Amino acid sequence: MNMMKPLIYTSLVLLLSTGLSAIEVHAYDDAPAEKPKMTAMESGNLFIPSEDSMADLKAGFDAAQKSNKLALVVMGANWCHDSRALAARLYKEPLSSIINAHYEVILIDVGYLEKGKDVISSLGIPVYYATPTVLIVDPLSRQVLNADNRNQWGNAYTISMKESVDYFTQFSEAGQSALQSDDEPDENLQKLLTDIEAFEDVQAARLYDAYAVLTPMLKAYKAGDQKAFSEKVWNEVRDYRFKVSEDVVALRAEARK
User: Fold this and answer.
1) pTM passes above 0.85
2) Mean pLDDT, all residues of the chain
3) Where are the alpha helices (DSSP H) in 112-186?
């Protein structure tokens, strides 16, 4: 698959030359403390650790089916200000009206990047590149409707309310029609997409190895050990994570031309 080579090589060189490469330092929380009177909903501190995230996911899908809504799976963490920004925005007008009318919200806590693999893998996606990762899912088929642009929310803090409303309105209107296509997949296209998935699987394994390095570092930092955090390592992982995500999106777009 010749069209993959330039993009694949740019991703692999970063990882193989550094050993680690993939997350986002501005997602790490060095922001001022929240106002004392701010509620959890206002601050976005809504990612609650769970003993069984898969059970939470199933319960959310069941509720979405019962209410005839789409499932909105948001994978994030309270230490990530992008995660908090999106979580808080979901409950503010005018976005909250769109969400309440069309979506069943399922917030999945990924801990310090050591959790969530089972959740996202169950939806046919090998890895979450960002916190937060947003998945708009048909609760019956478990098909992810926004697979090609799910990662843009890693910069949720910088996305405006208007952009958020437009995004979720678009999928609330187009979601069901997207599931009703009777077109048979082109054989050549399917082959290309399968190759891209294989490429992404390899990168996912490497990312989870990188996350395993970051987990104790983040835990120690949040426990008060300032020296535990390596900005250099964090930035390497961030850069790789974003590069792979961008490459996969570009490869899928190229395959569909």
Assistant:
1) no
2) 85
3) 117-121, 161-179
